[in-house]
Fold this protein.
Amino acid sequence: MAMALRACLKKIGCSMQAHSLSTTRKTLTRACVLFDLDGTLVDTDKIHFQAWQKLLERYNTSLTEEEYIHVAGRMNAPVLLEMFPDMSPAEAQQESLRKEELFRDIAQQDAPQVAGIEELLSYLEDREVPKTIVTNAPRANVNMLLKGSGLDKYFPEALQVLADEQCEHAKPHPEPYLAGLRQFDCAPQRAIAFEDSVAGATAAIAAGIPTVGILTTQSAETMYNTRCIVAAPDYTAPTVWNLVATLVGDKKRLV
């Protein structure tokens, strides 16, 4: 994995050198960073697990933590249709909304940031690096989590890609990440995506974006098997900062 990381750093660095042939600072910083929300910016996966358990009580069943790993990051309705083949699509959509209501009831009391994220977001803003959220979450969840975590100041509505509203396909399809790239007219090799789920990482990687796995839900092995270039516990990891510093051409920030 170290060789893969070095290769990615070299690729990003070479891309930066090519951009440096243009003299304007705007061109030099023509890069972008794309973030998932749940489990990536805000540590919510345990809360989603609780919400699923409460929903499934109605059906006298439950999810194990291992089973939840395969649910995390996916849209609710397709998961429910897999779990309950006799459920109609309309019923699955209704139960999906119910699950998100349960989630919000629990999460409104606590929406903890993933460690180091605010320092990284401040760094990107200081260097005028465009950033956006790319999420399968419904708008009510997005608004609540951003406000509850104090991260809403970094992501106004214009800097949000909500697959549920703006895309025909949700993650693991690459469409949401391709929409994120189009926001900034950014080539995928000039971007970095941060994801915590297999579905999300699969989407970002399919869009051609070097992807970092944040280990709030999955193991490092799982995220590397999904072809993430880095797997990190949070945003304090030196590997995360090396990637970002290389992307924006900040040699002083390299660890």
